[in-house]
């Protein structure tokens, strides 16, 4: 009789570990958006003026200046509740992709780059900001992949 | 029951992180406001060139004696209180006030 043995890799993670890694990534994303939303609301006029200087979106600056922090807060709420973390991560990736596209378009077509960033991010150049965003998108995708394998994230 | 308890722990931890981040942001935004100041551009006869963030009338090109200040908000250069007090009244309003010396 043939027996099948499963050889476990030294680097394989238990479900519990994966769950906490996914949760840690959600916390990071939550922290990023919470601080960003707070800063945009606390210095709302600065944020609005910065947006209004951007030729592509300047006309809609007044709406975008409210829409962005509200969207960030909603995503924070989704990431905060364990049962909605999956949709929260998808929303996080979507919004971060839009932000990254915005940064990319600014780098390509705008000579003078405004900055309405916060915390450590204000120390970054726009190109570094692009990599920073890409890193967070990759982290969120990794969390979704890790959670999906064992359905650690609730649907 | 075990899951519920774990979820409550996760929510509590998340709320703590949000509180810490917002508290830290609030602390740093007070610092930031004191740093906001304009950029100064001098006219060299052809174009306006960035002088810097510290106002000095000697940096304005003589002859044309014209400087432009571009207000700020999106960058954080500094200007001393005494330099700011010695600024003349600008012509024009808003973000692109112009100073003639």
UniProtKB/TrEMBL annotation, chain A:
<protein>
    <recommendedName>
        <fullName>Methylamine utilisation protein MauE domain-containing protein</fullName>
    </recommendedName>
</protein>
<feature type="transmembrane region" description="Helical">
    <location>
        <begin position="87"/>
        <end position="109"/>
    </location>
</feature>
<keyword id="KW-0472">Membrane</keyword>
<keyword id="KW-1133">Transmembrane helix</keyword>
<dbReference type="GO" id="GO:0016020">
    <property type="term" value="C:membrane"/>
</dbReference>
<feature type="transmembrane region" description="Helical">
    <location>
        <begin position="20"/>
        <end position="38"/>
    </location>
</feature>
<keyword id="KW-0812">Transmembrane</keyword>
<dbReference type="InterPro" id="IPR009908">
    <property type="entry name" value="Methylamine_util_MauE"/>
</dbReference>
<feature type="domain" description="Methylamine utilisation protein MauE">
    <location>
        <begin position="19"/>
        <end position="146"/>
    </location>
</feature>
<dbReference type="Pfam" id="PF07291">
    <property type="entry name" value="MauE"/>
</dbReference>
<dbReference type="GO" id="GO:0030416">
    <property type="term" value="P:methylamine metabolic process"/>
</dbReference>
<feature type="transmembrane region" description="Helical">
    <location>
        <begin position="129"/>
        <end position="147"/>
    </location>
</feature>
<feature type="transmembrane region" description="Helical">
    <location>
        <begin position="58"/>
        <end position="80"/>
    </location>
</feature>
Automatic annotation (TrEMBL), chain B:
<protein>
    <submittedName>
        <fullName>Uncharacterized protein</fullName>
    </submittedName>
</protein>
<feature type="compositionally biased region" description="Polar residues">
    <location>
        <begin position="74"/>
        <end position="101"/>
    </location>
</feature>
<feature type="region of interest" description="Disordered">
    <location>
        <begin position="72"/>
        <end position="101"/>
    </location>
</feature>
